[in-house]
Amino acid sequence: MSAEVVKENPTEAKPKAEKQTNCPACNKLIKKIKRYYRNGKLYCSKKCWRSFLTKSKEEAAAAAVK
Questions:
Q1: More confident residue, 14 or 55
Q2: Per the domain annotation, does 13 fall within a domain?
C-alpha cells in the first residue's frame, strides 16, 4: 500500500531559475565573453556595476527620507 501512495504523489520537479540575459544597469545584452559578476548578478562591465550601486544607494536614501 505504501508503494501505491508513492506512485500517486510523484515528486515535483523544481522550477529552473531563469538565466539573466540583460544588464540590470543599462539593460544591454550580456555576452558570455564579456561579463562582470558581483553579488549574485551579472553586469556588462565594471562601470555598469558601479552605476547600479550608486543608483541603488540613491533610491535607498530617498526611501529613508520618506
A1: 55
A2: no
